[in-house]
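Re: beginner question about structure tokens

> Can someone show what the tokenized structure looks like for a real chain? I only ever see the sequence side.

Sure, here's an example I had lying around. Input first:
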Amino acid sequence: MTDGMSAQAARIEFLRRQEADLQRCLDQWPSRWSQRHALKKKTRQNLETVSRILRELAAHLIAGSY
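And the corresponding structure tokens:
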């Protein structure tokens, strides 16, 4: 494995760990919100967006299109 491939594999693994951490946060999030918890809802949406972006970035890295 070349250094470039090794670095790419490390980046992909890092992204997978980050996405897994975010997914754990999302899984532990309460399923109901009241108006008082609108900020929590927005935070969850932001976590979901970051999680999606990390998955897409990892897919591009794996495909070699990044």
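Each token stands for a local structural state, so reading them left to right follows the chain. The mean pLDDT is 78.
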